[in-house]
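General statements about sequence and structure are easier to judge against a single worked case. No coordinates are needed to read the tokens, only the vocabulary itself. The sequence in question and its structure tokens are set out directly beneath this paragraph.
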Amino acid sequence: MYLEEEISETEIYGKVESIIKKGGYLLSMVCSDERALGEDFVIRYFFREEGIKVLKLRVESKFPSITSLCPAAKNYEREIRDMFGLVPEGHPDSRSLMLYPENWDPSIHPLRKDYDGKKPEFKKHGTYRYKEVSGEGINKILVGPVHAGIIEPGHFRFSLAGEAILQLEIRHFWKHRGVEKVCEGKNPEEALKIVSRISGDNAVNISLAYLNAVETLLGIKLSQRVSYLRCVLAELERIWNHVRDLGWLFMDIGFPLPAQHLFSVQEQLMRLNKVITGHRFMFDAFSIGGVNVKIEGEEKRLIDKMLTLVEKETKEVERFAIETPSVRDRFETTGRIFRKTAMELSLCGVCARASGLKRDTRVELPYLAYKDFDVNIPISEQGDVMARFMIRVEEIYQSINLVRSFLENLPNDKGEKQNLLFPYSWSVGNAETPRGNAFFFVMLDEKGNIYRLKYTDPSFRNWPAIQYAVLGDIIADFPLVNKSMNLSYSGNDL
């Protein structure tokens, strides 16, 4: 459970400014409709500052925007306006974020408790206005939202001078699924099935963040064995994600041979996932308070053999990247995100660490077996594609060591299930996905069902940064910059 400090509208600027000056940064903003509980609407601001600092603001119809102090708050505030109809006064962007005026009635706000969930009649209610760059010789390239292959929708609007990118404007949220609304009224096990599929390639770590919140609310104390096994699966997920991402970086600069080696390793890792958990993406590997897998002698042997192969292949592609001038020419200085930008946008994961920020949930907010082991956080000050490449390489080695340590020290003990329930209490859960911090806010009702669930994916925090990363690069570098960050569309758009 977390203590929250209730503040007034006149206090919020001073409080946020103080937190940021001390080096704190925004983890998430959560709005909830608590009118039936005598609270009006409530916005909670979650900052990372010596643990988690929580500010609580009661809101009737409008609230002060903090975007000028904390640029990372920009899209949270736009989301609150769409979903709850609360107006962030002083916000620099009055456009809708998720509910497009082309087909969504602006009087409907889906996360209000009085919204009946009926599908609205989609018809045009307005027009989305894109930012314009004017001047002699300026041209535009529009990419998406429909892409080739199986990639999910996203619209990228480039303004160029020749081939140099002057501005990139992103428009996402083309397939908003209403995950948070769907979870309302579900019991925690039913909601686990839903949230684990928010972004399939990060299913394990997203589930861990959710379970962290729910198990705290229910007073469940995990056995050490469950804690260790969950971390094993979390690190195996990190490894196969990073192996895949390294492969796509090589593909995007025309080096299919090392890419195919890595894709072969990825395939073997995913087959191992299925042997261990019954699913290539490790869906449904967890239950509340437990794990649904058995890792004994044979499974340990298969994992160790796979880790040896991964380590060997990773060392080879690392050496190839470092020693090949044409690879370095494409990777180095491309797609730079400077430290100041990373701080202002509260970036997380590889994107933060490659820009000099030592941020990793496993260390900052340790959970499960990570409390018992040292996790080294590789960082770089360069902020470019090469830095993100090398961070992934180092994290593969780190994850291999962690998996071996967890399995070598795997304990046998039992946990405790207290099944406590304090109606309308809330908790948060955090976990470090391969993309960065996954954050859940969960409030249960008097029956123990979901009253309010809010998820913040690392991609929601990191997507705005790509608009800065590409500035000054040529248009041909965009796919490479995009792949080096490897952000999720589905995790971003709930």
Observations:
- The first helix runs from residue 12 to 21.
- The radius of gyration is 22 Å.
- The CA atoms of residues 358 and 379 lie 6 Å apart.
